[in-house]
Amino acid sequence: MFEVAARMHFDAAHRLRGYAGKCERLHGHRFQVEAVIAAEELGPDGLAFDFVALKRLLGRIVGELDHSYLNDLPPFREENASSENIARFIYRCLAPDLPAPVRLSAVTVWESPECWARYTE
Predict the structure, then answer these.
(1) E strands present in 40-90
(2) Residue of 120, 121, 118, 103 whose CA lies nearest to 32
(3) Contact 98, 57 (CB under 8 A)
(4) Spatial contact of 91 and 58, defined as CB atoms under 8 Å apart
(5) Contacts for 108 with CB less than 8 Å, ≥ 6 apart
(6) Structurally, how many domains does the chain consist of?
(7) 14-40 pLDDT, tens per residue?
(8) pTM of the full predicted structure?
(9) Which of 58, 65, 107, 110 lies at a CB distance of 3.0 to 4.6 Å from 32, suitable for a disulfide?
């Protein structure tokens, strides 16, 4: 099994509704996102998946989140814009755009250098 990954970041504000702590108040992060692609075999070009293509696909999704108030975006109006939910949102947006036979293995979202959440299916 081969895995390739790309990372990007975006800046956004959010608040965690119903959370008993300082994160219930409006605050922001420089979120970092990593998407990991898995492939059983390499293509004829010797690549599992092209980094340029992965960054383009991931960039379209991350671009929608960049410099936004996440709670105002449709996926986070009803559920909290937690790192866990952001990772799931990005995963479910990115996975259908990948051509067979590659598949999305995981999406990880860091809200700080020490704290991250990962989503897989």
Answers:
(1) 68-69
(2) 118
(3) yes
(4) no
(5) 33, 34, 36, 87, 116, 117, 118, 119
(6) 1
(7) 999 999 999 999 999 999 999 999 999
(8) 0.96
(9) 110
